[in-house]
Write a structure and sequence with these properties.
- The structure is a single chain.
- By secondary structure, the protein is of the alpha+beta class.
- It is built from eight helices and five strands; from the N terminus they run H-H-E-H-E-H-E-E-E-H-H-H-H.
- The chain starts with a helix and ends with a helix.
């Protein structure tokens, strides 16, 4: 089973997506949707139009009950409009990192447009996709990205910016930035 089949099993077979949808329209974002996953990480946005303490804590409770996380954290500041839940689970047998952010529709649309642009660029120039995948995999092996990253580490957006905006095609070039 490849990483996408495992992700689909977690979302559909173990009910993660249905669980999120109970609390607002949920969107899968990040590397899953762009076809550039290299580690067990899923990112979701929930439309924050319905964000309130009851929904936030309801989802947190449902995650604790149904996803059996071995790590769990979150942040809720209704005055600032900030809401986040993050957890790791091994419910499917594999270790997964899941992040859930509440975002307004404009932020969700911007994220979708960004992902669509990246996918288009990778279709036009497959070397870009190969570079992203190779850099991510190399950084994982160096402990600089992924589940077991060290204190110094990189985020996907940094890799995408380097490849798509700066023309970086190798891990050596990326690390030299």
């Amino acid at each position: 089973m490849d990483i996408y089949e495992k992700a689909n099993e977690l979302m559909h077979g173990y009910g993660l997506l249905d669980l999120l949808q109970k609390y607002g329209e949920a969107y899968i974002v990040g590397s899953y949707g762009m076809g550039i996953m290299t580690w067990n990480d899923l990112d979701f946005y929930i439309d924050k139009a319905g964000l309130n303490a009851e929904n936030y804590y309801g989802l947190a409770s449902d995650i604790l009950k149904n996803m059996r996380p071995n790590r769990f954290d979150g942040e809720l500041d209704l005055e600032k409009g900030v809401a986040f839940l993050g957890f790791e689970t091994r419910i499917s047998g594999d270790r997964w990192n899941i992040d859930v952010w509440w975002k307004n529709q404009a932020e969700i649309n911007d994220s979708k447009a960004y992902a669509d642009d990246m996918v288009h660029r990778m279709r036009e120039n497959p070397e870009l996709k190969n570079a992203v995948m190779r850099i991510k995999q190399d950084l994982i092996s160096l402990g600089l990205y992924g589940l077991d990253k060290g204190k110094k580490h990189y985020h996907s957006r940094e890799i995408y910016r380097a490849v798509f905006l700066m023309g970086v095609l190798t891990t050596e070039q990326f690390l030299a930035l």
